[in-house]
Every structure is written in structure tokens, then in C-alpha cells.
Amino acid sequence: MAAERALRSAAPHELLDAVRRVLVDGYAAHSVELFMADYGLTVLQPVAELPHTWDSVSVYNSPAGRAFGAQEPFVETTPGARTARVHLPVSVRGDRLGVLSVTLPRESGESGESDRVAELADIAEVLGHEVIVAERDTDLYLQARRRDRLTLAAEMQWQLLPGRSCARPEYELGAQLEPAYDIFGDNFDWSATADRLLLYATNGMGEGIEAALLTNLAINALRNARRAGIPLADQAALADQALYAHYAGRCYLSVLMLDFDLSTGLVQVVDAGSPQILRLRGGTVERIGLDAQLPLGMFEETDYVTQEFAVEAGDRLVLVSDGVYAVASPGGEAYGEAALARAILSTRLLPAAEVPRAILRELADHRGGPVPDDDALVMCLDWRGR
Asked: Which one, of 377, 384, 373, lies nearest residue 318 by Cα?
């Protein structure tokens, strides 16, 4: 593919110029724009050399936002116009990065239009892969994601993340953190092999840079143990030792660790603190009760044990931090399990990647303001199994 060759040979900061040349030469494109989803998942930010001069577009009520939310190309046309604007999702293995918007001459037949849109969708997918690689060598695409300036703590937390969504035949997964530009200690991580999926939801104590440093140490200790092939309970024990060796119990971190067998749906769990799991099955939401163990780093040489439960095809799991279920309304009423269950039911038709953002919007309505006092983490897993 000419687009793939052009993108692979382009300098990291020139991917948009490269794809623009391909689309102008091969499709007579009038304009080509790349938009990246911002950290709060509320707007699509244009990729341009600083200082940015283009306007962002809404994720909720714009043609580009429609393509982003549905993860399907959307063709925007005006009766009698000689051009059409095609909005194409830019995603990598289920991780939603942004939208490529292309203005083209209109095709005369529906079959020709459909073939052309399919070709453009393939180009947008290749562009997404190249953006991920290019982010190792340029800040351009990371800068484009920022509607506002990130705090240093938030910068550290976002750099830890594996992505915000992913998909495989066995499952779909999405997660989001708030306040996106000022996050403290909440975080999430995941890793998959041919046979297993491991999820981690963390909630570190403290605020600002101290909370971010605590979470960075914990996440990297867990990854170090996981990559050594160590079982789940021993991962928790080793991370616990790393935190206690550094903080001597002054700071600690809650974590919920899940290890899914992709073949059977059996889940091993270590519950070390405050994050909770709720399951939607057959129209009913219930909390999965687990025996909570001590947070990581609270005491020296804590032993951890795994518990088990099973997921079935069609199950949806929602993991939340205490910054969700414990949030108080202006009148002092906690959000609680009942309200969270209603939010999960009201979002049951959305794809997993859209659910965290929707639940956090409902949480903001309960809180009575857009800016939370505490970190809020929502993860959503749709299980299909094999």
C-alpha cells in the first residue's frame, strides 16, 4: 500500500504531511486533518505545529465525534455539494486515538463510495499504528491531546498507562481517570498473553507528586514481578515489600488484581484495598464480594492469597475506585452501590470503551460540579470468552 510505505518512511513529526500527500495524489483530497482525543475524552484536538491555530471539535455532538464514538467511518454530505467529508476512526487494537477527517470529491455511485471509504479506513488504521510508534520520538501527538496543561503528577500517571481501551475476540476493555488533567494516585494497568488477561486497578494514598511517585513505584514493582512470570499473590507480596522498604508503612496503596483464564473464564483475584467490582449479568447488577486484604506497603512482609470467581459470556465487569462509590452529593449523600448499579444499567448498550466516560459524567451530576475532590477510576470489561 502506497500510504503504508509513505508513512513508514516519514519522519515521526511528519506523518500527517505524508498521509496528506497520499490522499491528495491518490484520491484528489481537498483537505486532510488529524484530530487526537484529549485526556478527558471530551474533545478532539487538531494535530498542528505549536501554537495550535485550529479549533477542537466535540466528542459528543460533531460528525468527527460520531465516527470516534461508533468506531465506524461517517460520511458528511450536503445536498448539491460537489465534495463529501469523510471522518475515519484512528485506532490501534481497540485503543481509540482520534479521527482522520478527509474532504473529497463526491463519487457518483454508492458502490464506488463504499469501496473508497473502506480504503480510507485502512489508511487511517495504518496511520494509528504509526502514531503509536512515532510517540517514542516526538511530542507532537501527545501535545495535541492536551486541551489544558497537565500537572506534573498527571503527566507521570498518564505515562504509566497501557492505553485507554483494547479489544480481542475474548473481551473488550475500556478505562478512564478523572480529573484527567490533575490526577493524583489512581491508575490502571493490563497485560494479555495467548491464554490470560491480567488487570490491575490501583488507588494510592496522598495527593500531587507524592501520590504519583507512590503509584509509579507500585506499578513498576507489579510489572517487574509479572514479567518474571510470578503468580498473582506473589506479585502482590513483592510489590508490598518494595513499597514498605521505601516508605516503611508511611504510605501505602490499594490494588485490585485480576487474572483471567481466557479459555475457561475462571478469574483469580487479589483484593488489597478499596477498589470494587460490580458485575452486570442478565440485566442484574451485583457487587462481587471479596475478602479484602491489607493494602500494599502498610506492613512488612504481608502474605496475600488469591480468591476465585467465574465470568460467563455476556458478562460486564465494572471496576471502580473509592473516588467513584464514596463521592458525596452537595447534600452529603454518598454515590453508593445503588446509584452505581443504576449507572451501569443505563449504559448497558454502550461499548466497553464508552462506559467509563459515561459513568463519570453521571458521577459529575451527582457531585454537583465538574471537578472532583478525589481521583476517580472506572474500568469496564465486556467478556465474550472463547
From this structure: 377
The count of C-alpha atoms lying within 13 angstroms of the C-alpha of 333, restricted to the half-sphere facing its C-beta, is 9
Q: Is the dihedral of CA 60, 319, 212, 189 positive or negative?
A: negative
Round to whole Å and give the CA distance between 206 and 225. 24
Beta pairing class for 57-58 and 165-168: unpaired
- Residue among 256, 282, 264, 97 at smallest CA distance from 170: 264
First to last CA, the chain: 33
Choice among 127-131, 338-342, 354-358 with the minimum mean pLDDT: 338-342
Cα 156 to chain center, whole Å?
16
Q: What backbone torsions phi and psi does residue 100 show, to the nearest 5 degrees?
A: -105, 120
Q: At what angle do helices 208-227 and 152-160 cross, to 10 degrees?
A: 10
CB 320 within 8 A of CB 202: no
Distance CA 73, CA 303 (A): 50
> Residue with C-alpha cell 468527527?
64
Nearest of 202, 235, 219, 208 to residue 159 by alpha carbon: 219
Helix (H) or strand (E) holding 128: helix 110-134
The answer to whether the beta carbons of residues 260 and 199 sit under 8 Å apart is yes
Helix H, strand E, coil C: the string for 74-115 is: EEEECCCCCEEEEEEEEEECCEEEEEEEEEEECCCCHHHHHH
Is this structure's pTM higher than 0.70? yes
The predicted pLDDT at position 55 comes to 84
Phi, psi of 201 (to 5 degrees): -115, 120
Residue 218's H or E segment, with its range, is: helix 208-227
Model confidence over 70-91: pLDDT tens digits?
999 999 987 877 899 999 999 9
Sheet containing 43-46: order of strands: 57-58, 43-46, 31-37, 95-105, 83-92, 74-77
